[in-house]
Each structure stands twice: as structure tokens, then as C-alpha cells.
Amino acid sequence: METHIRDTYKSIAAPSEGLYKELGSRFIAKSFPVSSETEAMAMVEAQRKKYHDARHNCFAYRLGPEGKLWRASDDGEPSSSAGRPILGAILSEDLSDIVIVVTRYFGGIKLGVPGLIRAYRSASSDALANAEKVEKVAVRAFTVNFGYASMEQVQRLFKDMSLPQEERDFGLDCRIRTGVRLSAVDDFLERVSRIDGCEAKET
After folding, report:
1. How far are the Cα atoms of 54, 68, 80, 129 from residue 103, in angstroms, in the given order?
2. Start-end ranges of CATH 3.30.230.30 in the chain?
3. Which of 12, 101, 147, 178 is deepest in the core (most CB within 10 A)?
4. Per-chain mean pLDDT for the chain
5. Could you give the 3-state DSSP secondary structure of residue 60?
6. What is the DSSP letter of 2?
7. DSSP string, 9-47
């Protein structure tokens, strides 16, 4: 059955850096791959500590296969002059699971809101230009529980669907933990339901 579930998206493979200078001000952009809000904010705090003498550490992050979870912060700059332009750079490349922190060292001359927007976006774009892009697959985690009598059918299911066996426990009963890409979840659950004594619980 045809599905329209989006389960692949673009992110970055490793941290990268960008730089923009104007009228004495320096804008240092750092991009990081992240997988949660907690991780994103930890990166922001790490940059704030590293550049504790800077006037501003502005940031934006975007998370998830569809990028629905996001946040942008101006950190004291005029409203929407920093965080939104950083987010704009992320959106222009359709990236997710990423945070960009842009640190500004003030050069003594005000740039005005249009100048700030240009600077924060340019620094962010430079960091992304230096980043290696990767494709990620969105998955849901399941634990498959079954008896030894169903072992052959379960192993065939895993092979047919090319599912990873991340954790296995063959004690009194059998248990395998796996990740199923979003577009294959319905098919996976339907196949599991056809195996006697087998159940899949989302974990």
C-alpha cells in the first residue's frame, strides 16, 4: 500500500563553524547535530560558557523528521533580528536535528536591524556550507516478545523487513528490540499480528 509518511530527512553529520564580520563586529556560528531539546540547550549553554565574554549568544534549533519542534532566541538583540535569521538559514537547507549558536562580539558600531539580520543569517549559512549533510531515517522503537515456537517466523520477519536487532534476550521467553521506519510501522504491526504468541510493544 502506498504511503505518504515522511520518514527521511536531512541533518548534519558533525559540528561545523562559520564566521561573518562587519564594522568590527564578529559573528561566530557553530552548528551541532542534536536529537532532543535537552541536547540542543546543552550545546547552547556550552557555547555561552566558552564565549562568556561575548555580548550575545543567539541560537535556533529544529528537531524531528518534519521539523515541527523548533525554537529561536535573540538573546538580547532586537526582536527577530538574530534567532529568526538563524532559523531561516536552517530552513533554507531543509535541515532538522540541528542547533546553531551564533556568538557576537560587538565592534562598537551598531549595524541596525537589517544589518543584524544579514549578519546572523550569513554566519549561520557559512557554518552550514562547511557542514557535511546526511540523510536520517525516522524510526519508532519496538520490543517484540515471542515464544521459542515462533522463533523461525520472527527471524524471517526481521530478515524480510531488514530490521536491526538492537537488543536480544533469549531467556524463558524471547525478546528483540528494534527500530522500524515510520513508513513501515503499519506493515510491521500487521505482520507481527499474524505470528502466534507474538506481540510488539512500542518502547
Report:
1. 7, 25, 16, 18
2. 8-135
3. 101
4. 94
5. strand
6. -
7. EEEESS-EEEEEEETTEEEEEEEEE-SSHHHHHHHHHHH
- pLDDT tens for residues 53-100? 999 999 999 999 889 999 999 999 999 999 999 999 999 999 999 999
CATH fourth-level superfamily of 138-202: ACT-like. Chain A, domain 2 (3.30.70.1150)
Q: Give backbone dihedrals phi and psi of 107, rounded to 5 degrees, phi first.
A: -100, 0
Count the residues in the chain: 203
CA 139, CA 94: separation in Å to the nearest integer?
Answer: 19
DSSP class of residue 148 equals G
Give the strand order in the sheet containing 139-146. Answer: 167-170, 174-181, 139-146, 199-202
Cell 555561552, located at residue? 48
Could you write out the DSSP letters of every residue in 93-121? TTB-SEEEEEEEE--SS--HHHHHHHHHH
Position 1 confidence tier, pLDDT thresholds 50, 70, 90: very low
CATH 3.30.70.1150 in the chain is located at 138-202
Q: Does domain 8-135 have CATH number 2.40.30.110?
A: no
Measured in whole angstroms, how far is the alpha carbon of residue 179 from the centre of its chain?
17
3-state SS, one letter per residue, for 153-183:
HHHHHHHHCCCCCCEEEECCCEEEEEEEEHH
Which residue's entry shows cell 559540528?
15
